[in-house]
What we know:
mainly alpha
Amino acid sequence: MIKVRDKSLDGFRGIACIIVMISHVGHAEIIGRWAVGIGKYGVAIFFVLSAYLMCYMADKALPERSNYWLSYLKSRFFRIFPLYFVVCSLFLVGGYFSGLFEFGVADYLSNIFLIDGYRHLWAIPVEFKFYLVFPLLFMIAWGMDEKGRIKALGWLWLSSFLISFFGIWDNVSLLKYLNLFVAGMIAYTLSGHLSVMDVLTSNKKKIYLIVTLLFFVSNPAVFSVLFFPVKFDFLHDYLFVFGVAAALLILLIRCDKRLKVMLENNLLVFIGSRSYSLYLLHPFVLYAVKQAKLGWFSLIVFILVVLAVSEVTYKKVEIPFMRFAKS
C-alpha cells in the first residue's frame, strides 16, 4: 500500500478549507463582509493539491499494480460520493419540508449526475470530472521522458488557461478550471527536478512575498480600498493566478523545512484531514447558527459545532467507505 499522507499537505489543505469557511462566514455577516469573495481561492488550492496527490499516488503505484486504474476509480467514487449523497439529500429534505432551499428532485438528480452543483456543491462535479480524465492525461504525459512531459504539461496548462479565460463556461465545467489541476500536475513533475528546487530555494523569500501580496491584494475588500470598488466575485475568472501560487507553495513545502513544520501544526492537520466533511457540511451549521441570533458568540458556536459535526461524519462516513474502497 502506497503511503500518501503528508501532514504538511494536510495543513495546506486545512488553510484552503479555512479560507472557504471564512468567506462564507462573511456572507452570513457574522464577522462583517471583509472576507466575502475569497472562498473560490481556497477551492483553487484544493484543485491544485488534488492533482498533485493524484500524480503522486499513480506514479508510485503503477509500477507495482497492473490493475491500478480500476482500484483508483473505485477509491475516488467511494471517497467522494457517500457524503455527497448525504449532503444532497439534506438539501432535498430541507427544501421539501421547510422551504429553506430551492432544491427539488430534478436538482437532486442533476447534482448526483454531476450536471449541476447547487451553491457550494459546484466544486464536486468539477473535481470528479477531473478524476475521470486524469488517467488519460497521466498516461499520455508519463509516457514521455521528463523533458517531454514538462513541455506537454506546459502546453496543456497554457491551452487550458486560454480556454478558461476566453471561453464562456458554466460553473461546473471542467474546462473552466482544468488549468488549476494541470498546475498541480506540473508541481509534482517539477518537485523531482533538483535544479528547479535549487532555484526555488535560493529565491524563496521573493516567492513568499509575491504570494502573500497576491492573496492580500486579491481580497475584494482590500482591493476596493487600495484601487477601486469591486464586487465580491472580483477575480473569480482569474483563478489561474491562484493555481500558480498554490503550485509554487507546494514546491516550497518540499524545499523549506520551516514552512513544512508550520503546516504540520496539529490544528491545521486536523482541519485538513477533515476538510471534505467541513467543506460540505459547514453551510448547514452556519445557517443554523445565524438563525439562532447569538450575536458575537455566533462565531465560537459555529467553530465548535462544525468541527464536532465534521469529526462525526469523517469517522462514521468517510473512513468506513475509504476502507471499503481498499478492500
